Amino acid sequence: MTLACPAIDGVELLSAYRPGLSSVFASPSGTLLAEGAEAEVSGGVHGMLPDQVEAMLTGAGPGARAVVGAIPFAPDAPARLVLPRLLRRGTAPPAGAAVPTARPAPARAGGAPPCDDDGYLEAVARAVRDIRAGRYTKVVLARALRLAAPGFDPAPVVRALAAGASGSYTFGIDVGGGQTLFGASPELLVARRGRYAVAHPLAGSAPRSTDPAEDAHRAAALLSSAKDRHEHAFVSEAVADGLRPFCRALRVPVEPTLTATPTMWHLGSRITGEITDPDVSALRLATALHPTPAVCGSPPGAARRAIAELEPFDRGFYAGMVGWCDAAGDGEWAVTIRCATAGPEGLRVYAGAGIVTGSDPHAELTETTAKLGTMLAALGPADRALTTRGA
Ligand SMILES: C=C(O[C@@H]1C=C(C(=O)O)C=C[C@H]1O)C(=O)O
């Protein structure tokens, strides 16, 4: 990173995070706390964002020469990228860091939240029929859960996620309108540091088990699953194809490897390359790749139409990207998954799964329930879940 401020303890920055007043992004390479807004870009044409951000950074003072923010899933939905008044840079939160934190305010109480399981099962079954009929080859279908949580404060949850999900990209981003986007994504869309670009797409998943033998069995089964490897290949090939025009010496693993989060196993591919044009920023790479088949599908146009037909809610910032980009073009953008939004309309938690020809609706329901579990566990004991497929 080429940020102007000296490195301080990332745990301190997470403790100083105040939703509504600041945004925070913690990755394996460091923690950023963005306070106030000197300027912002909220354009709804994502292809224009890199130029707008570059112009904003060129005019910025030396103290905050980086933008921090989030870009939604839909290509025409307004982004929120802020040039902060004060940008503080710190170390990465250490694994299991004891971040001083109050217990997360209970968002739910009693019992599992009622979910429109039948609606999701039907949507997956319909997608499998569409795939077999040749309409598209992969689509990612998500569920959204709405929870009542008056006065909810995301800050303790963000701190708990940063302490508990090492290797992840933890964020609490003020997205405007009194809304905070927060979560801990395991998936790196793309990062640029100097001449090098790296992406680490994930696709193909299995819920983890608390029993070590069963957990190891599930990991091995995932690694050898033909259906999951097929599902993964769409993503790894699309990301490699997306980076190729910008890079030389692109290295694409022939075989995926396992990535673990506290709740899930994933198949992942770490793709690296050397950038040919030094003016191509991390944000430009990210907007060129987004949305990958990890959150949309293949081919992208038909998958988008299927998502619009089969998901009864607006994805908003879910399945978009979240991160930062500095004046030198360096930056990190994570795929906005394992996340929630908190605002005047309550809490919304999101999770999706890739559907291919061999997908079983009940297995996808189990997978999305496990993925929702990342955020539900961090949110604390259950209360009034309003649920909904149309959250
Ligand atoms: C869409 C999500 O996750 C994505 C889908 C995956 C899959 O289908 O196996 C795995 C990781 C992510 O790329 C989500 O968590 O909401």
Automatic annotation (TrEMBL):
Keywords: Isomerase. GO terms for molecular function: isochorismate synthase activity. The gene is dhbC. Transmembrane segments: none annotated. The keyword Isomerase applies. It catalyses: chorismate = isochorismate. Gene3D superfamilies: Anthranilate synthase. This is isochorismate synthase.
